[in-house]
Design goal:
Arc Repressor Mutant, subunit A, 2 domains
């Protein structure tokens, strides 16, 4: 399978450099110099992964990410911000816009390639699994039903709920969650899990995900 990657950045040198290195790794690469062009190319080619700059003309990165998340045919596309805005609050804004991950510039090319490889390993998996709690996780349709209501979740929230509900009552440590959802080679901020848990609770209710302070989280039917 040849993975398709879309890179959106208004700095031509960065765009060409990343594109060249990813093509050397065997990926099919598409390039956009602004958010509006990125959205058009995403609709046309349905990439597996989009590397998205935050500061771009026409449509900025956050606006582009939200637009991508509204496209049903792009529901399986992973969106990763690659931005010089590396502060934790900026990263949290990126996650709020629907990003799967957030990488700060500058980043060594070998590390970027390694992270892209780790992220693309997560593409796949299917099947529907009821959790026994009024919540059904459908991997094929990438959706969740909660007490008969269908809920659409961003990729990381979906993966987090899928992981926790796979073993009701089991305590997942923060380290286990980081490794399972973000991969051992991807570094994220300390508050990233907490933000995703908070957003999940807003959508499925506060009763299902239990915090074990200082350790991690578990799913209770």
């Amino acid at each position: 399978m040849k993975y398709r990657i879309l890179i959106a950045d208004d700095e031509t040198d960065i765009l060409e450099f990343i594109s060249y290195n990813l093509q050397r790794e065997g990926y099919e690469v598409f390039k956009a110099e602004n958010g509006a062009e990125a959205l058009l190319l995403a609709r046309q080619y349905r990439p597996h992964l989009i590397l998205l700059d935050r500061m771009m003309p026409v449509m900025d990165g956050a606006e582009t990410c939200r637009a991508i998340r509204r496209e049903p045919e792009l529901k399986d596309t992973m969106v990763v911000f690659l931005s010089a805005l590396g502060e934790e609050e900026e990263q949290l804004r990126g996650f709020d816009a629907g990003a799967d991950d957030y990488l700060a510039k500058p980043i060594p090319m070998k590390l970027l390639v390694s992270r892209v490889q780790a992220l693309l390993k997560r593409v796949g998996a299917g099947g529907e699994r009821p959790s026994g709690s009024g919540i059904t996780v459908d991997r094929d349709r990438y959706s969740v039903r909660c007490d008969g209501r269908e809920i659409s979740l961003p990729r990381k929230e979906f993966a987090l709920l899928d992981l926790l509900s796979s073993s009701p009552g089991k305590l997942f440590s923060r380290e286990e969650i980081y490794t399972s959802i973000w991969g051992s080679e991807v570094v994220v901020g300390d508050r990233t899990i907490d933000v995703h848990i908070r957003k999940l609770r807003q959508k499925i209710g506060d009763d299902h995900i239990v915090t074990v302070k200082g350790v991690g989280y578990k799913f209770e039917p």
